Each structure stands twice: as structure tokens, then as C-alpha cells.
Amino acid sequence: MRNGRFAFGVVIVAVPLVLALLGPVFAGEPGPRTVSFTLGDGHWLGTDFVGRDVWRQVLHGGRPVVLTALAATALSYLVALPVGLAAALTRHRGLEELLMRPLDVLLAVPSLLLILLAATVFSPGAVGLALLVALVNVPDAARLVRAAAAEVAARPAVEALRMQGETWWRTAVGYVGRSILRTLAADAGIRLTGVLYLVATAAFLGVGVAPDAADWAVMVDRNRTGLFVQPWAVVVPALLIVALTTGTNLLFDAALDQSGAVRGRTAKEARR
After folding, report:
1. CA distances for 63 relative to 70, 71, 126, angstroms
2. pLDDT higher than threshold 80 for residue 97
3. Within 13 Å, how many C-alpha atoms sit on residue 124's CB side?
4. What is the pLDDT of residue 270?
5. For the segment 123-179, what is each residue's pLDDT rounded down to a tens digit?
6. Integer Cα distance of 256 and 168 in angstroms
7. What's the distance, CA 1 to chain centroid?
């Protein structure tokens, strides 16, 4: 069952990933624009709201969504990991409060609202959108890291490492970090899905992208007026976003189940 779910996840996620990463290479030169929301006439998936070929827009539209989501997820953990580990391992209550309380303020503000408020001050591009999405994900990720690391930090092994004079890096990363790796992997799958939806929603609302950009989320927004005339311009990019998020979760779940099964077999062999 685990292997079947993993294979199913690979099949689902492979299509949007291949289109996102390799699509622009095979898109070719743009052809002349024709009538909006038409089918046939050499256009596999018809034309969009300004008469562009939908298939070519699909080939170009995945890379911004995928790269922005991956960059935002990586950046959020890049900040959350050291902050959460430092808060969990410190013996100074004041330092823990200094690290975590500002994040609680950010956590109280809805993520999309914070992004929209920032967009009213300046116009973020793809890099700015990735930074904003990473920023709104840092508080929640840091709290999860701290909660998972605090339980490990209370173990006698950590106290023994401190008494042996081990460095903070070896204790935090070498022992505590490795001990919470499974928790982080589970969170990464959920967080990447949330980031993908947040990036797509922000792009849907016109944050970080041009109104006529080749972007799957923008395609859903701009072509929805012709949904009943030429549905492929909306259905195809929407299905690709759903496939990417669903496949990612299936892959992470299957990988975690496999890891748990391996650990269970190892423990049984050790008891024998």
C-alpha cells in the first residue's frame, strides 16, 4: 500500500513538475494572437482572454509558481530552524521571550492579509513575493521547531553532551536536529502545500505578477470570464496546481510511512 501510494504520488506530481521545469524549453516562439476564447484552429487547448495559445501559456506558467513556492519554503525554514533551536536549547528565559514573542505578533495577522498590506506599500516581484510568503510562514515554523526540539532538549543525552563540553552546533544540529527530522519532514510536506496555495492565491489577486503574466494562477483568474465558452484555459492550470499540491502530500506521507516501517523493523531486530 505504501509503495502504491508513493507511485501514485510520483505520477500525479510528475506532470506539473515536468511542465514547470521543462515547459519553457519546448514552448517555442509565440504565434500570432487570434480571437479570444476559441477552440481548434491549431490550438490544442484553445486561446485565452487575449487570444494567446493556452498550451504555450501552460508551458510557461508553472515555473514561477513552483520556484516561488520552493524558495519561500526553504527561506522560511532557513530562519525558523536556528530561531526555534535557539529558543528550545537556551537556558535564559529572556532570550527565549526575545526570540519568540515578536513571532507571535506576526502569527496573529492572517497571512494573506499581511501580504496584501505589504503589496499596498510596494509592488513585489517574484523575489518579493517569495520573501513575503516566507516571512508569514516563519512564525508557525519556528514554533513547531521549538516545540519539537524542547522535548528532545529535555533528554538526559543533551545534558550529557553539555557536560562533555560539546559545541552548541553539535548539540543543536547533530543531536536535537536529527531527532526532530521526522517531524520536520512531515511539516515540510504540509507547509509546501500551504505555500503553493498561498503563492497561487497571491498571484490570483495580482500580487507579485503582471496582470497578463504566463502564470497558472493568473491564468485561472484572467480566463474565468470565459469558463463556459473555453473551459480549458481555466481547468488545465487549476488541475495542475491541485495535482502539484496533492502529489507532494502523497509523496511525503509515503516517505514518512516507509521511514516508520524501517525503524519498526530495526527495533524488532534489535530486541531479538
Report:
1. 11, 12, 11
2. yes
3. 24
4. 43
5. 777 788 889 999 999 999 999 999 888 888 888 888 888 888 777 778 888 888 888
6. 28
7. 26
Looking up cell 533528554, which residue turns up?
155
DSSP for the chain?
-HHHHHHHHHHHHHHHHHHHHHHHHH--S------SS--BTTBTT-B-TTS-BHHHHHHHHHHHHHHHHHHHHHHHHHHHHHHHHHHHH-S-HHHHHHHHHHHHHHHHS-HHHHHHHHHHHS---HHHHHHHHHHHHHHHHHHHHHHHHHHHHTSHHHHHHHHTT--HHIIIIIIIIHHTHHHHHHHHHHHHHHHHHHHHHHHHTTSSS-TT-S-HHHHHHHHGGGTTTSTHHHHHHHHHHHHHHHHHHHHHHHHHHHHHHHHHHHHHHHH-
Closest CA to 191 of 235, 144, 154, 223: 144
- Given a cut of 80, whether residue 56 has pLDDT beyond it is yes
Q: Report yes or no: 216 and 241 within 8 Å, Cβ to Cβ.
A: yes
